[in-house]
Amino acid sequence: MTDNQNLLAEQRRALILDEVRRRGGVRVNELTRRLNVSDMTIRRDLDALARQGMLAKVHGGAVPVAEPSAHEPGFEAKSVLEPSAKDEIARAAAALVAPGTAIALSGGTTTYALARHLLDVPELTVVTNSVRVADVFHEARPGSGGGGFRAGAATVVLTGGVRTPSDALVGPVADRAVRSLHFDLLFLGVHGISAEAGLSTPNLAEAETNRCLIRSARRVVVVADHTKWGTVGLSSFADLAEVDTWVTDRGLPGGVRAEVAEQVPGLVVAGGEQL
After folding, report:
1. Would you state the torsion angle of the CA atoms of residues 241, 245, 248, 254, taken in this order, to the nearest 10 degrees?
2. DSSP for 156-189?
3. Per residue in 86-113, is it b (16+ CB within 10 Å) or e — as a string?
4. Are 244 and 221 in contact (CB under 8 A)?
5. Rounded alpha-carbon distances, angstroms, from residue 169 to 36, 102, 191
6. Is the pTM of this model over 0.85?
7. Could you report the per-residue pLDDT of 47-104, keeping only the tens digit for each?
8. Cα(253)–Cα(58) distance, rounded to whole angstroms?
């Protein structure tokens, strides 16, 4: 496959997953008509998504998988979900960053997308517990094959710690590093967000590291697409009221936006309005 074909496959599979979650199940013949591809292509997509544990195949189609609260998908599995929404969110979140500030980025595929949009913001100090995020800035440095020297390139502090399936560094080493620092903005990716459970993750150690990040930040910005709403992981680490801004996408229903706005001072809908 070419790169374009790979991108199209990722987008198609993200649409399939969204349909499965929204409708509670889909049939192969419906997907072939909607996406204008062959029956064989859809079946390959369903096979790939089923191998990743994202859905369950049934006769003639697919249904959602009820994930255990402790299940933690890997970075690659999450990266194929809602790629367009994540990029829109990243663009909107990057607009909140002023040159010369100290920011923190947690682990996650949306914060990874955000890092790429921050490369041209000068004189940043970036604290991160994400190996993937650190790599984005490292590859842009001189001598790393990223295209030469960048004036005002970011200073990056990688916390250290134990690596999770999503390539975040967590545990006592990460926690101690974060507690000793203070930053203007924290951009936080989340596994799940809900009115009752707040922000949650399936990883107990990551929950504690996220608590440390929140305590060290003057302002907390959650970057999460609409599919994260209603998902609850094993461990809650913050209430909605602890969030200053949530940057999300237009897929978040209007009723949910109103509910969130009662607790979160700033709700930014990427490509839409700011509430």
Report:
1. 60
2. EEE---EEPTTSBEESHHHHHHHHT--EEEEEE-
3. bbbbbbbbbebbeeebbbbbbbbbbbbb
4. yes
5. 41, 19, 15
6. no
7. 988 887 778 888 888 887 765 555 556 666 666 677 889 999 999 999 999 999 999 9
8. 28
